[in-house]
């Protein structure tokens, strides 16, 4: 599965919570997470750390909200979800299974899977995502607890952090491939 598709439940949550029912948004995001896992299993693929963590995160927050009847503000709910996402990504690095590695292995031939450069590349990409989610958490804290700061600043910071992580995820592997590729031997013009 495409790594960006795995973030679908977070996008769904962000859209649905704007309608004011955080519990419904949490349940819907947990359900979508479960459907994505079922889809991957049906295709014979493994459950990924990000997907499993997403089900636990949204499911756990939904159960907590239903049992306690906690009345989340939109910014508090967003902070809880972004903090959970940060924990999932950072946790994957700390347990030495960077979350991007599972996605990369679906696109790279098996003979590269144990290559130290391949593994290091995934650590770097996962670390960039962890940094982006740390920025999201900080932006959420500012938006939730410092009302004097305009909301648009937090939104712009969030968009820039996510855009940067997406860009890096696409750009960095290409740079590594270029660096590792054998030098091409150019044939001088006029030589056949």
Strand and helix map with partners:
Elements: H1 3-6, H2 8-17, H3 22-42, H4 49-68, H5 74-94, H6 99-105, H7 116-145, H8 151-180
Helix pairs in contact: 2-3, 3-4, 4-5, 5-7, 6-7, 7-8
Q: Count the beta strands.
A: 0
In whole angstroms, the N-to-C terminal distance is 45 Å
- The global form is globular
Put simply, the count of helices is: 8
Helix content estimate: over 70%
Structural class: mainly alpha
Give the tally of structural domains.
Answer: 1
Mean pLDDT across all amino acids: 91
* Poorly predicted sequence stretches spanning 5 or more consecutive residues: 187-192
Rounded Rg: 20 Å
Let me know the largest β-sheet.
none
Q: What order do the SSEs take from the amino end to the carboxyl end, as H and E?
A: HHHHHHHH
Description of the molecule:
By secondary structure, this protein is mainly alpha-helical. It has one domain (3-180). It has 8 helices and no strands. It has helices spanning 3-6, 8-17, 22-42, 49-68, 74-94, 99-105, 116-145, 151-180. Helix 5 (74-94) packs antiparallel against helix 7 (116-145), helix 6 (99-105) crosses helix 7 and helix 7 runs antiparallel to helix 8. It is globular and about 60 Å long. The protein starts with a helix and ends in a 12-residue tail after the last helix.
Summary keywords:
192 residues; mainly alpha; 74% helix; disordered C terminus
